[in-house]
Amino acid sequence: MLKINLENSFVNTSEIKNMEPFIQSAHRVLHEGTGPGNDFIGWLDFASRIPNEEISRIKATAKKIQGNCEYFIVIGIGGSYLGAKSVIDALSHSFHNLLEDDQRKVPKIIYAGQNISGKYLRELTELIEKKDVSLLVISKSGTTTEPALSFRVLKEMVENKYGEESKDHIFAVTDGSKGALRQLADKESYESFVIPDNVGGRYSVITPVGLLPLAVMGINIEDFINGFVQGEKDYSSVNIEDNICYQYVAARNVLYRRNNNIELLVNYEPSLQYVSEWWKQLFGESEGKDGKGIFPGSVNFSTDLHSMGQFIQDGTKNLFETVIMVSDTAKDVAIKSNEENLDGLNYLSGKTLNYVNQKAFEGTLLAHVEGNVPNIILQMDKLDEYHLGNLMYFFMKACGVSGYLLGVNPFNQPGVEAYKTNMFRLLEKPGY
Ligand code: PA5
Predict the structure, then answer these.
(1) Which atom, in ligand 1's list, is nearest to the CA of 174?
(2) What is the model's pLDDT at position 296?
(3) Cα(195)–Cα(174) distance, rounded to whole angstroms?
């Protein structure tokens, strides 16, 4: 199970203990639903409440999509896409879209509606013009500009391609009763799933928003759900000694109060890059408000040691790192001896890439700690559905409690509206 190591966090045991009463109070506010945003805490025990019929319908729909397309296009932005992409990238083959057809059991996946680039959408439509496709449009509000624009274009393409049968190639996840997408899904009889009212976008990976795309990509959603259910138990104790999630909350908040106001999520596995993107949205939208909050950033090591390593080691001292390490990555490459040894790497013969990666982590940890950068280490046993589900629940719970500790509403995002209002005015949208 997930472990935390605070030995290099520069936060001592008594400082963690001193945070306990404040964390317990934030815990109560969250669990008793007495805080701001209390109508968005459905994610807390969502995993243990998913009806079996919902799981069966998700799996049946996934099977249908797997069987009817070469390209599976997921349209959504923010919380309506980052969760699914992060899990799919973490658990799929590193080159899953490039595998030969006979090596791949699931469609190729492409994301759309997460930007407003004409180049991106034009090239996507050119790519899929002669291919079989299925669209999954995900939008809680059903009115977000980016996915709505892409869906308008791609839907027309699918309708031209499949005519009467186009409804077999269009699927939706949206609100149960409100919004333009709900209206359209009902009118066109698309197979559709509901995002519950009491779960916000960035907490929605455990709802059909995440589960349907995961199932299409061959990911075991029952194991993923079980990881969440285990998280509900693992991170429920109000005693800080028994709850590593609250130890993480305490450590990052002690550091924040010492002006370490940038947290970098670090990984040593490229497949975790989008877990960091998901995490950045989770903490950024939840905590960054009212002039407060830890800025969430991310780096992928050892890659970014060759770009950001200098700054982390030697730059402004307002950072701390939270490192995700995976004990068993399942796959590895052995390093063989070479007679000429021109590259000078024979000292590593008999070792593996993962061994070297581990030493890169240990060496970096020593260096950054010497450079006065606090490090929190999270150790995952394995990178699989169960452990990733558990890690995501860990972060969601930490985020909700951290938000209340900071005195903000962790479940709204009023600041996101400012750019939209200006953009709509510039676009002369009626009413702006
Ligand atoms: O977390 C959030 O609430 C946002 O990131 C939304 O998920 C994002 O703006 C997309 O919204 P919608 O699902 O309504 O299209």
Answers:
(1) 13
(2) 98
(3) 5
Structure tokens at 25: 């109070």
350-403 pLDDT per residue, tens: 999 999 999 999 999 999 999 999 999 999 999 999 999 999 999 999 999 999
Whether 306 sits among the annotated catalytic residues: the reply is yes
Q: pLDDT (tens digit, 9 = 90+) per residue, 392-431?
A: 999 999 999 999 999 999 999 999 989 999 999 999 999 9
**Closest Cα partner for 294 from 367, 398, 416, 206?**
398
Residue 420 annotated as catalytic = yes
For residue 14, how far is its CA from the centre of ligand 1 (angstroms)?
39
Which residue type, as a one-letter code, is found at position 294?
I
| CATH of 42-219 given 3.30.420.140, 3.40.50.10490, 3.30.565.10, 3.40.50.2300 | 3.40.50.10490
- Whether residue 156 lies in the annotated active site: no
Distances 180 to 15, 33, 177, 201 between C-alpha atoms, Å: 50, 30, 10, 17
Closest of 200, 208, 172 to residue 187, by C-alpha: 172
- As a dihedral over the C-alpha atoms of residue 142, residue 144, residue 147, residue 148, rounded to 10 degrees, the angle is 70
Residue 302 preceded by cis peptide, ω within 30: yes
- DSSP state, 106? S
- Protein residue with least CA distance to atom 8, ligand 1: 78
Residue range(s) occupied by CATH 3.40.50.10490 in the chain: 3-34+225-412, 42-219
Look up the CATH number of domain 3-34+225-412: 3.40.50.10490
Which amino acids bring their CB within 6 angstroms of ligand 1?
77-80, 139-141, 144, 147, 200-202, 285, 413
The beta strand positions in 7-162, using DSSP E, are 71-75, 108-112, 133-139
Whole-angstrom Cα distance, residue 63 to residue 61?
5
